[in-house]
Amino acid sequence: MIKVLVVDDHPVVRDGLTSMFAQDPGFEVVGEAADGAEAVRKTRALQPDVVLMDLRMPGTDGLAATRELAGTAHVLVLTTYDNDADVVAAIEAGATGYLLKDAPRDELVRAVKATARGEAVLAPAAAALLMKRVRAEAAPVLSRRELEVLECVAAGATNRDVARGLFITEATVKSHLLNIYAKLEVGDRAAAVTEAFHRGLLVPGRKPARDVSP
Length: 214
Fold this sequence. Notes:
The protein has 214 residues and is an alpha/beta fold. It has 10 helices and 6 strands, in the order βαβαβαβαβαβααααα. It has helices at residues 11-22, 36-46, 62-69, 84-93, 105-116, 124-138, 144-154, 159-166, 170-184, 189-199, and strands spanning 2-7, 27-33, 50-53, 74-79, 97-100, 121-122. Helix 3 runs parallel beside helix 4, helix 7 (144-154) crosses helix 8 and helix 7 (144-154) packs across helix 9. The termini are far apart.
């Protein structure tokens, strides 16, 4: 029998999860907690096999509680948030898994069983976001010249403007742009600028180092 601790600041959510697992003979709900601090205390006292942890809670949140329980309990984050920052933060804090609250009952049951075995569990949306984050971090870094070209393009400069401002030929500008597209995995200059801002390669409001005004 898998012992579960349910952690969520919403009583209705806690009641629903507790009722669901209480009806399954393979689980025993050993307790509930309304915030991270209570979750840590009850985990240490009750020693559940799995802690179902909400992320956003008043006081001590789920991330802080997960970090404090790292290495001592299997934490399955159960949240409504599926952005890459939350996914990465939860995994770095020591969570065994990350699932969304809209997951079907069968999927949640399987996830809790897998978490109890120490297996990593990720919601499909969370896995996709994590994959995108890893790929972005592993992507080749733009050279200084490529960044200069992209800054000019982001400022609205044409290839001719860029060539004049950087004292290079238009053919060289086109070559740099093709390299930029390949590294950022995009197909045109607008997408390259958007992706560069997304990755933090370009900073909003920063003007190009060279004058590219027509």
